[in-house]
Amino acid sequence: EDIIFDPNVLTIGTGMEEHANYGVDFINATKTIKEICPYVKISGGISNLSFGFRGVMKIRESIHSVFLQHAILESGMDVGIVNAHEMIAYDDLE
User: What pTM did the predictor assign?
Assistant: First the structure.
């Protein structure tokens, strides 16, 4: 219960095919960790995910919002580390 896992959140949108699934890989890893160790906490540095889109804030903000929605609700992530100024509320996405 006092253990926090912090799996790497790796960058998508680099143009390299092998990086395209990193977001899904994190969500799947989070789900697996929670299934094996249901009482641990999981955090992730969400800003890393969108680093390939730096300078394009609308995309970064949208990625953070959608990713958090899925990582928290579908996989059980407990803590998302993200700059609050780089977020759009999920319900406000167009």
Answer: 0.85
